[in-house]
Amino acid sequence: MDELLVDSDGNDVKDLLLNSTRSIGRVNFVGLSVDDAKKYVFSDLDVAYAFYNAFGRVNEFSIRKFKVGRNEIDKRILWQTFVCLRQGYRIFRGIDETNKKRAPKSETRCGCVAQMRVHIDVGRDWWYTTLIQNEHNHELIPPTLSRMLRSQ
Ligand SMILES: [Zn+2]
Question: What PANTHER family does UniProt report for this protein, alphabetically (predicted)?
Fold first, then answer.
């Protein structure tokens, strides 16, 4: 349905609709600005997650799923946020012998506010980005290096 491939401003989004995690491969994330990243729309939340994951890989941070907002009646997800892995603070659970021996985690949370938020467009049946906050309050580590640190 070609006539639906326009966004709410009437812009053609044919090249911006990502309808599988595979289709993310055609996005050039190197040097992709936040404004340009926000133009993409996604067929489902998995694709949106994979998109932000790839965005994070290039921008040297890791992500995780965070909050969802649901329709009160049918519980359908209306929006979701993905956050930097360092979002928030880890809850202190006390020290026990096993904790003491464990090396400190390389990905300690430090209250980073970087995030991506997507909403469903019910009429067009796709997900669009309402927010990408890309300010990190910590050093960014290339994923290959952070993998090495994690496995130590
Ligand atoms: Zn961060």
Answer: FAR-RED IMPAIRED RESPONSIVE (FAR1) FAMILY PROTEIN-RELATED, FAR1 DNA-BINDING DOMAIN PROTEIN
